[in-house]
Amino acid sequence: MRLGRYLTLLRRNRAFARLFGAQLVSFAGDWFATVALLGLALELTGSPSIAALVLVVQTGAFALASPVAGVLADRYDRRRLMVVADIARVPVALAFLLARSPDTLWIAFVAAAGLSLGAAIFEPTSSASLPNLVEDEDLADANVLSSSTWGVMLAVGAALGGVVAATLGRDVAFMVNAASFGFSAWLVVGIARPFSRPRPAPGETGHAEPGRAGLRGMVDSVRVVVRFARGNRVLAALLLSKTTFGVGTGVIVMLAIYGREVFNAGDAGIGILFAARGLGALIGPFLARSIVGLSERGLILGIAGSFAAFAVCYGLLPFAPTLLIAAIAVFGGHLGGGAQWTLSSYGLQRAAPDAIRGRVFSFDYGLVTLMITLSTLAAGLLAERLTPAVTTWIIVGLAAVAATGWIAFSAPVWRRRD
Question: pLDDT-based confidence at 338, cuts 50/70/90?
């Protein structure tokens, strides 16, 4: 995978290195809190659907905020938006400390929604800014590294979060999450390179509206992206990639059930399975970059293979006799997850003009988080009535059907030669 090229990029591009660091610490805190919150919800209620609701609230709030975030990312200073989003999340993250009983668990859900609102601004804005923080020839490598941050900190943050919650208590995990946002804001403030390209004046070639405020701006944001993708099957396929993958991601809520109840390993078991998910998401982008390349055909073929890896590995998960074998299955599934996220993100970064890139990524993230919300809600409801194995197979089956439809839609692209 020639890791030296990625380390060289971090050494010589200080702006990207700081953004990379900000993403690392922010995601680490998120997973400290998520593992602790899932364990808290199961402990206080004993209900898989309530545990699923934790993830539903996170992704649902993200999806609802995405159209607004896209307009903001294209209208205002992106650096300031990211800093404000980080600082605002510090007190929100500390609100988890107030959830002590079933009667106060609602506070944790409100706080989880608040953190997702901040993430809905930070993450698409970061993706939209990336092509402006690196040279064109470095964009592919920077995208792989940036995409891997989620996997790195899911692997490290989830594992450590489970251990910390089990040994030092969940309050420590929640405080680490709050501190991570403050450190992330400090790193972003120190980036001197511009996050956006200069906007052409009205009437000049290449001028695009930066986006209106309010409800009309949200509608316009969606309309601009749909118009951008219409008639271009490659772009449409890339925009639908993450959403198609999202059909099956409701199975993620089952990791809490497998870790805590099937294998009786408590919060540490949840952390191990989430860490395996993160490790797969970390390695997947590097494998995808080296195996399928970065041509349009390579991107589409790589995404199709990612869907297959996810479905096969999660289909085998219920057969796992031990927590270790289950972790290996989860790892394999998210090799595919990390690969498809990286490939689709790179394709969109390369194709979308800077003036609308914030709206493109907010649309992309909004669609996938909406689908993840619906899938997670379905998984939680099914888990209340069916065994973990049957629930897993139903969700994986739906994912396989969706992936088959996506592959058929994308066939004109992957069948042709570049």
Answer: confident
Q: Tell me the C-alpha distance between 206 and 186, whole Å.
A: 34
CA distance 331 to 318: 14
Q: Is the Cβ–Cβ distance between 97 and 38 less than 8 Å?
A: no
CA-based nearest residue to 12, from 22, 23, 2, 20: 20
Provide the number of structural domains found in the chain. Answer: 1
Mean pLDDT along residues 266-277: 80
Report the pLDDT value the prediction gives residue 204, as an integer from 0 to 100.
46
- Taking phi over 0 as left and psi of -120 to 50 as alpha, with beta for the rest, 97 belongs to alpha
Residue from 232, 248, 244, 224 nearest 363 by CA: 224
Q: Which CATH number do you get for residue 256?
A: 1.20.1250.20
Residue 402 confidence (pLDDT): 93
Q: Select the more confidently predicted residue: 216 or 289.
A: 289
- 3-class SS of residue 264: coil
Range of the domain at 261: 4-192+231-414
Task: Please report, rounded to a whole number, the percentage of residues in the chain having pLDDT higher than 70.
Answer: 85
Rounded Cα gap, residues 41 and 106, in angstroms: 10
- Please give the pLDDT value at position 208: 47
